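Q: What would this complex look like in 3D?
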Amino acid sequence: QSVLTQPPSVSGTPGQRVTISCSGSSSNVGSNNVNWYQQLPGTAPKVVIYNNNRRPSGVPDRLTGSKSGTTASLAISGLQSDDEATYSCAVWDDSLFAWVFGGGTKVTVL
Amino acid sequence: QVVESGGAVVQSGGSLKLSCVASGFTFDDFGMHWVRQSPGGTLEWVSFISWDGEGVYYADSVKGRFTVSRDNSKTSLFLQMNSLRAEDTALYFCVKDIKAQLVRAGYMDVWGRGTTVTVAS
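A: Here is my prediction, written as structure tokens for the whole assembly.
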């Protein structure tokens, strides 16, 4: 059971917008920056959002991060087949004194 | 980039040492993590070591059994794993942090491809 709760899967058609939530608590999401990782099948995770809403160079602006209270979100607009991957949130937890990850959300493009 | 090695099949209660060699960045400017991914796919943070090796931190699940270390002269990171259990079976990633110390403002930015550890019961 992950400390951070994500939906196991979301899906959409090409061009649609999908949103992935990451629900935590006051000791993690509520007080620290959230980062999002994309993992394509058979590859290592890659950071796509850091510090809640910042994009590393090379990440398209179709991916946007946000946070409100103890829930963070990753939105993917203009969904493309390249976006098919598993997305995981990660944040430092002040109570556990550890980095914690969400269970991951698999995005499927129909 | 970072490249892990040392994964293997080991019996429950056994030991194993993982290694990671880094290149393309100034290794001793950054802290380093080990993160593992269970067969079910969930990521779990395992350990962090500061740039100078003075600060070491562990997840509760591995505390007392795993030891992280680094050799900056060889741009290498290590994870000594003892008293291995079936639940330690995972793909282990070597990961670079953007910061030198373990701070809330840090995050993991460079990941290796991982090395597989299987603990047979």
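A: To summarize the key features: The first strand of chain B starts at residue 2 and ends at 5. The interface with chain A takes residues 33, 35, 41-45, 48, 57, 59-60, 93, 104-109, 111-114 of chain B (CB under 8 Å).
Q: Very helpful, thank you.
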